[in-house]
Structures are given as structure tokens and as C-alpha cells.
Write a structure and sequence with these properties.
By secondary structure, this protein is α/β, with parallel strands linked by helices. The protein has 2 domains: 170 residues, P-loop containing nucleotide triphosphate hydrolases (Rossmann fold), CATH 3.40.50; 63 residues, no CATH class. Strands 6-7-8-3-9-10 form a 6-stranded mixed beta sheet, with helices on both faces. Strand 1 and strand 2 form a beta hairpin. Helix 3 packs parallel to helix 6. Bound molecules: adenosine-5'-triphosphate (ATP) and magnesium ion.
């Protein structure tokens, strides 16, 4: 289902010459990429390539050494996480990072902690309409849910922050294909509601079949980019990531 861009009113993301890492260890080397409003873009690469580090830098969790991250006309490089979320860039982290002892409802409300508007409860209802399974599990501790359900909570928690650009790290990890398909269906609905998506996936095949465009990251550098369908056909991608 290659999802094509659907135009929305939201901002484009322009990353230029981004260097970032941990202390003295640089992980990202001059990364540049562009995401237009309404796109679904995949970021693929092997273990340790720096995919999560890149999402971390976009989210303000990993410190930026140099370069620029423009979202619309707002500079996000070096900005605090709160400000980045407020600007509309929200991450669903690798490993889900739920509050395991808190209920599904409480986890979702955590996603709205920056909001002061009166539509939080209406948005909870919207999330439950999109993810009906969570209604059945609403008062359960998130830690007792199955992996697929926990991933749904992580996605819903991000939605509660009203993202314009949703960053999703390894959504499919550890989940059976049938659950991955279900989650992709949910992502397609979120996209149809006007949310731009950047998905990081080790499952390159799944990511390239779902996204409209993709970037390939190797040892902290973007080595390839283009329409996802073209990358699926690219012999070097097939060899390196698809085992064909
Ligand atoms: N908190 C950290 N402190 C120091 N080094 C880190 C930290 N997190 C990641 N790294 C290192 O940064 C590099 C990139 O890691 P990163 O997690 O971004 O890769 P990834 O592409 O997301 O890999 P994976 O597919 O395993 O999730 C690796 O060499 C990793 O060891
Ligand atoms: Mg990662």
C-alpha cells in the first residue's frame, strides 16, 4: 500500500547537515533530509546505523552538535523536548516506553500533559474510536497488555499530543505479521487524517511497501533516498536489506 502524500496545512521538515551523538561520540554525520507535509517517509538501515539517534535528535532527546532542523520556520535543533512537542513533532519511541504501572487511560493523558485546551477528552474519545481495543483495556495497567496492545497505547499517547509530524521507531519489532498489518492500517488512518509520518524500521520490506519515499542510513550517513517503490527494486538494497 505505498501511501502517497496527501497535502495538508502542516509544516515541512528540513534537516540540514545534522551532526549529533552522545558526549564525544558522534553518531550522525551531516545528515540532510526533507519531509513534505502529508508524506509517509521511511528511514531504514541496519542495527546501530543511527536511526533512533536521528529520531532522538529530532525530538530533543539526543543533543545536536551542529546543523539545522527546521519544522516550518521553527528551528528545532537544540530546542527542549517540550517545545518540539508543542511545535507538533511527536515521537513513538522504540520499545514503547509506557508507564507500565499506570492504566491505559493514564498513559494516554500523559501524552496530553502539555495541553491546556478543553479538547483533551474529545481527543481521548477519538483515540478510542481509532483503537477500540484500548477501550476494552482502558483501566488496565499498560504493563499487563500484550505487545501489540502496548504499541497501540504508545501510538495513542503520541496522538494525544496532537502531532503534525509523527516519528515512529521500530513499530513492528517483536510483533507477529498480523499485528503489524493491523498497526499499519491504523497508521494509514492517522495519515489520512492529515498527519505526516516518519517511520524507522528494521523490517525494510514492510517499510518500503508502506511509505511513499525512503532514506537509507548507514553508519550515521544517508547513503540513498528516493521513492520507496524504486528502492524496493534497487539491487543493492535487495542485497543488503531484503536478503534477495
Ligand atoms: N545512549 C547512548 N549512549 C552512547 N551511545 C549510544 C547510545 N545510544 C546509542 N548509542 C550508539 O549510537 C549508535 C547508533 O545507535 P542507534 O540506537 O541510533 O541505532 P539504530 O539504527 O536505531 O539501531 P537499532 O536498529 O538497533 O535500533 C550505536 O553505535 C550505539 O551503540
Ligand atoms: Mg533504533
Amino acid at each position: 500500500m505505498n501511501l502517497e502524500a496527501t497535502p495538508t496545512g502542516s509544516a515541512s521538515l528540513t534537516v540540514r547537515d545534522l551532526r549529533a551523538g552522545y558526549g564525544d561520540v558522534r553518531v550522525l554525520w551531516d545528515v540532510s533530509l526533507e519531509i513534505e507535509p502529508g508524506e509517509v517517509v521511511a528511514l531504514v538501515g541496519s542495527n546501530g546505523a543511527g536511526k533512533s539517534t536521528l529520531l532522538g535528535a529530532l525530538s530533543g532527546i539526543v543533543s545536536v552538535e551542529s546543523g539545522s532542523i527546521l519544522f516550518g520556520d521553527v528551528e528545532l535543533a537544540g530546542a527542549a523536548t517540550d517545545r518540539i512537542v508543542h511545535a507538533g513533532v511527536v515521537q513513538v519511541p522504540q520499545g514503547r516506553r509506557l508507564f507500565g504501572g499506570l492504566s491505559v487511560r493514564e498513559n494516554l493523558l500523559m501524552g496530553a500533559y502539555l495541553r491546556t485546551d478543553r479538547e483533551v477528552h474529545a481527543d481521548l474519545e477519538r483515540c478510542l474510536a481509532l483503537l477500540p481495543r484500548l477501550r476494552e483495556r482502558y483501566e488496565f495497567p499498560a504493563g499487563r497488555l500484550s505487545g501489540g496492545e502496548q504499541q497501540q497505547v504508545a501510538i495513542a499517547r503520541a496522538l494525544m499530543a496532537r502531532p503534525k509530524l509523527l516519528l515512529i521507531d521500530e513499530m513492528s519489532l517483536g510483533l507477529a505479521p498480523v499485528l503489524v498489518d493491523q498497526l499499519l492500517g491504523i497508521l494509514a488512518q492517522i495519515h489520512a487524517q492529515g498527519v505526516t509520518i516518519l517511520m524507522v524500521e528494521q523490517d525494510v520490506q514492510t517499510a518500503l511497501e508502506f511509505a511513499g519515499r525512503a532514506y537509507v542510513l548507514e553508519t550515521g550517513r544517508i547513503v540513498k533516498s528516493g521513492p520507496a517503490a524504486e528502492l524496493l527494486d534497487d539491487p543493492s538494497i535487495k542485497r543488503a536489506y531484503l536478503g534477495i
